[in-house]
What we know:
With 472 residues, the protein is an alpha/beta fold. 27% of the residues lie in helices and 29% in strands. The protein is built from eleven helices and 23 strands. The strands form four sheets. Strands 7-22-23-21-20-17-18-19 form an eight-stranded mixed beta sheet, sandwiched between helices. Helix 5 links the parallel strand 12 and strand 13.
Amino acid sequence: MGVLRVERSVRSGSSQSRYSQSRSSQANPAGERLRLEIAGLSSDGSGIARTDRGVVFVAGALPGELVEAELVKRRKDFALARTVSVVRPSPGRTAPRCSAFGQCGGCQLQHADYPLQLSLKAGLVRDAMTRLGGFAPELFENLECVPSPLPWGYRNKASFPVQSLRGRIVTGFYHAGSHRLIPIKTCPVNAAPLNALYGAVLKGLPSLPFGGYDETTHEGKLRHLVMRSGFHTGQTLLSFVLNGRLAAKSIKALVAVGAAGRPSTLTLNHNSRPGNVILGTHTEPLIGSGRIAERLDEWTLEFDTTSFFQVNTGQAEQLFRYAAEQVRGTDVLELYSGVGSLTCFLASRACGARVTAVEEWRSAVAMAERNMRANGLEARLLCARAEEAVGDLRGSYGTVVVDPPRDGCDRAVLEAIHAFRAPRVVYVSCNPATLARDARILAGHGYRLTSIRSFDMFPQTVHVETVAVLER
Length: 472
Ligand SMILES: C[S@@+](CC[C@H](N)C(=O)[O-])C[C@H]1O[C@@H](n2cnc3c(N)ncnc32)[C@H](O)[C@@H]1O
């Protein structure tokens, strides 16, 4: 079974939701029972079974298990099923902590104990790098996935969609692969300050004189609650994401609801565009500065509502220390640099690099400027798209560090790395599939994968962060 097939199934949504869709939409095999040996894990967290009729993705099943499954949908080259009972459980199977597990789209692996989660994630990276990247399996024999300092309560950011149901304003998380809301009261992967803030806001929502957002009609004012916190500083940020403008009276009501959660700062973010993007480009602070601070090792970093910040502070520290240790040479080009979190580690005395950092999001670059100054560090910060900036950059870089979003690097970035003849690339990735694709392209330009280590940035989920070092 090719990983490509898994990717196709991921794009069509997670297995849990596909089941519910298929029940109504298919004249199908639904109900057919199968006994399946689970041979692997897909990149969306389903078990993979191989049968003489093709691959079956089985929600709720773990590798090594024998399960009784109900077929939900059959496609031309794969089928979807859900676990009905576990005949032979994995030794690593455990009871999920959250009552919404299996419905909520947030976590996929709560039914695996933590050591099993780590080995499954190392397996996903190994799989992507060998199948999609074309690298030799021996390179990944000792691949480790570094555990998160906190397997629960680690998330410093949460976004809650808001809707109106039968005239009542509701919030929670989306059902896996759909926009059906599951009301929740608390979330065990969120940091305690976020749960406290969320609980307080939840109480006040019914008092609002306007409704939640309706994606079909594009009506309703309140679209999302976005919450962030500083693990080391205890500061919290609350943002209400609005569709359109509000009358002064409504804003007052909204501020009262938010203030009950005592956030360090409260902002309004305006997003009137239909679609899945949570945040709009315009944000206004109503309480405080619109920014909060977090510490990463000795560095204090500020970020605002819309700028990227790693969601797991303790693990980000471990990852950044490691990534900075991989750097060689004095001149470093860092692409996709955000508010300058990794930049601080690179520009520190310990690493001693002269850093040129490129980031496209203007407010993140503004934060990075403040952050470098506040920490007494220097770096050349450029606000530009990486794929455009690399065309203008001249210089000889000992190391190019990249930390792109899930889509990976633009082809122009990889070609420029080759053109720079950079001896070393440190690639920080949150998506094994695009890491494998990009590493393969670099390998085609003469780069050799010399080390790789994964970090569990997102415990209880199927997601994993990886640092790969490639050398010419
Ligand atoms: C995964 S984050 C990494 C940020 C930073 N290294 C950190 O860990 O905090 C990726 C960053 O790339 C930025 N970004 C996305 N596409 C970009 C592009 N084409 N050019 C430059 N920056 C981009 C995003 O705004 C985001 O800040």
